[in-house]
Amino acid sequence: MNIAVLALQGAFAEHRQMLQRMGVDSFEVRQASDWCRPKDGLIIPGGESTVQLKLLRDLNLLEPVREAIAGGLPVFGTCAGLILLAKQVEGEAHMRISTMDIVVRRNAYGRQSGSFFVKDRFAGKPIPMPFIRAPYIYKVGDGVEVLAEVGGKIVAAREGSQLVTAFHPELTSDTTVHSYFMQLVKRAL
Ligand code: GLN
């Protein structure tokens, strides 16, 4: 199994380290030629969604990535990755990857006090959840399963083989969310 990790900006190295600890191979996608490599799943890291979107467009990666996800390639988006996957982002009309039926509010906890740490349940299991200027999901479509809520706000969800978290599991040593993603990848093989 080989997981592509979008490595244009943000916390991609931490995702690769997490996969490595789990014994899963991965490679970095920095340009269109990297995208041609065979892959069983894709991780879109946290960082700055506006910067990642611009680079995806400039590098001619946006369409191929969207098509692959629409075609069933399992994807895991954290934070900025969640924003890129959302069909709707409050106050923004432009297209992103826009494959997941969720409505998202960016910098939802305020810009200054937006970083915090909690332990809460993901798919029923308590795990550490670091939030960094995080978005949250305030509406999900019919086909979307809510996997975590913190303070009454949806912070993790799944639609088919698309998984998103508003927090950063890759910044912890807990492999629960990445293992969950790898189950989606295995199921899609
Ligand atoms: N607020 C950032 C954005 O809009 C996301 C923050 C993060 O990925 N930690 O892209």
UniProtKB/TrEMBL annotation:
SUPFAM superfamilies: Class I glutamine amidotransferase-like. The keyword Hydrolase applies. It comes from the Bacteria. One of its GO terms (molecular function) is pyridoxal 5'-phosphate synthase (glutamine hydrolysing) activity. GO terms for biological process: L-glutamine catabolic process; pyridoxal phosphate biosynthetic process; pyridoxine metabolic process. The active site is at C79 (nucleophile), H168 (charge relay system), E170 (charge relay system). PROSITE patterns: GATASE_TYPE_1, PDXT_SNO_1, PDXT_SNO_2. L-glutamine binds at G47, E48, S49, R106, I132, R133. Pathway: Cofactor biosynthesis; pyridoxal 5'-phosphate biosynthesis. Its EC number is 4.3.3.6, 3.5.1.2. Keywords: Glutamine amidotransferase, Hydrolase, Lyase, Pyridoxal phosphate. It catalyses: L-glutamine + H2O = L-glutamate + NH4(+); aldehydo-D-ribose 5-phosphate + D-glyceraldehyde 3-phosphate + L-glutamine = pyridoxal 5'-phosphate + L-glutamate + phosphate + 3 H2O + H(+). InterPro entries: Class_I_gatase-like, PdxT/SNO, PdxT/SNO_CS. Gene3D superfamilies: 3.40.50.880. GO terms for cellular component: cytosol; glutaminase complex. In the presence of PdxS, forms a dodecamer of heterodimers. Only shows activity in the heterodimer. Catalyzes the hydrolysis of glutamine to glutamate and ammonia as part of the biosynthesis of pyridoxal 5'-phosphate. The resulting ammonia molecule is channeled to the active site of PdxS. HAMAP family: PdxT (MF_01615). Belongs to the glutaminase PdxT/SNO family. This is Pyridoxal 5'-phosphate synthase subunit PdxT. The lineage of its organism: Bacteria, Pseudomonadati, Bacteroidota, Bacteroidia, Bacteroidales. The gene is pdxT.
